Amino acid sequence: MHKTVFVILILTCLFAGCNNSNQSAMNENNTDTSALNRKWWKEAIVYQIYPRSFKDNDGDGVGDLKGILSKLDYVKSLGIDVIWLNPIYSSPNGDNGYDISDYQNIMQQFGTMADFDALLKGMHDRGLKLVMDLVVNHSSDQHEWFKQSRSSRDNPYRNYYHWWPAEKGQPAHRYSFFDVNGEAWKYDSLTNAYYLHYFGDFQPDLNWENPKLREEIFNMMKFWFAKGVDGFRMDVIPFISKDTTFPPLPAEYNGDFIKYYAHGPHLHEYLQQMNKEALSKYDVMTVAEGIGLSTDDAHAIVDEDRHELNMLYHFEGVSLGYLPNQFKVPDPKGYDLLEFKNIYSKWDSVFENKGWGTIYLGNHDQPRMVTRWGNDSGEFRGLSSKMLTTFLMTMRATPYYYNGDELGMNNIKFDKIDDYRDVESLNMYKQIKDKGGDLQAFLNAQKISARDNSRTPFQWNNSSNAGFTTGKPWLKVNPNYKTVNVAAEEKDSNSCLNYFRKIVKLRKDNLVLVYGKYTLLDKENPQVYAYTRELNGKKILVLLNFSSKPATANINIDLTSSNLLIGNYASANNTTALRPYEAVVYELK
Ligand code: TEU
After folding, report:
1. What are the residue ranges in the chain where pLDDT is below 70?
2. CA dihedral of 184, 189, 193, 197, whole degrees rounded to 10
């Protein structure tokens, strides 16, 4: 480059000051990054689409594949790289697609295989990758395998599932997530035997100890890879291997059945086999729903040398702030930021030298991020939502970002059980009712924690049903769609949506935000989450006020000459004093 041009460029950067103007200068792709073990899925931002609620094309009130296709330009405009789609396979929908009746077909309500092919092409044409949901701990009871399996004890498919012959007596108790009685064994008189279902009784558990079943699954995965799918998010994958003698729950698990389920005897052997037979043949990414896994277990699954999976997402963060031993009942005191910081710092350190992490605050199983972790009151909804987005986009882990969070969508907070559609809420209500429990207390807790809060239709504009459908939506639309919607936020340079786009670009332009070393500062500050990210001499400071009160970060860093990269207030003052829910990201000089 000519010297004068170079000087002019530098001066332009200096005078432009903050925000995005200096991002190309911040781009570190020219520096030596060979030691980073770079991978596309480490640098990607994953955007999760809940197909049932994203966009309805045919007016039946349920989202569909053509609807998603019609909105791909919007998705592309966010700047994300990878789309994770919740299950779109044939399903009777007892659990919104997590009960699959045919793994190689598309759910009728969502469209056809031709629609899928068009959608995948539409994504690839735009440089977007697709990650599908792999739900193979269980199938639907309407799957042909299960129909065969239950038909007779000597059917060739019998041991595709777990059966316990009744003449052996009652099987040892196993807990179920979605059973009205909490019982995971269901008696079937047809063959005088019980079958196992960790989730609903319509979701029988597949028998992974059977090599034929494993082969079927790996072939099915290859079917989708051959179509060009770029990876899988693996539903409750830690649960697949079981001790088929089904002993009483071992005492060491001390009532923690989830942990027991996640530590089956052959889990790693099966994942290694899956890797060898299917995953290793393609350039794809994998992420385990890491339910029941602790930091101690993490490397066993994602350590590259073990050839299992790439990433997992843990449940420690999202379990915070609920009362112990109660079903998702929020602690009236809220959650403790010190614990929050501890959890996320601990998980960062697990992958400091090996493996790779994920970061998320919302998904289809969690309530809306801004309600749960921020503040959804009118005054603070936008600010706190942007603050949480800043956290997600500046941590050393692949962000999984849930559709609608970029608009600052919040919990709908239903008053009546009749408004809910989720099997989890409906069954828990029945359970409490049968026991004569406090139903009003349950409904109050669900306003914060129920899964349907994040499953309400996506808010496109202020026309009826938020532009989601011309029919009757399968789940009510949040009435705040009149103001919280894409069309309105497109026009507002200060909106959550435009903030999301800016910070996505910032992350994409700065390798330090992906790979840079994370250091927690001001650990004991109960209001502020402060940390630095460092790579190859570049140092970024992130300050997040998680409270509705002004706060100060005690960090002994003079910010006067620092360069503000992004902030959620109109201007920033280069000090450590933060306004309510303020988020600022500086490049330190
Ligand atoms: O979730 C796993 C799971 O255990 C959830 O039930 C989770 O604990 C719960 O939602 C928290 O309230 C996966 C899927 O993500 C979920 O949507 C399915 O319902 C479930 O598996 C069964 O497939």
Report:
1. 1-32
2. -20
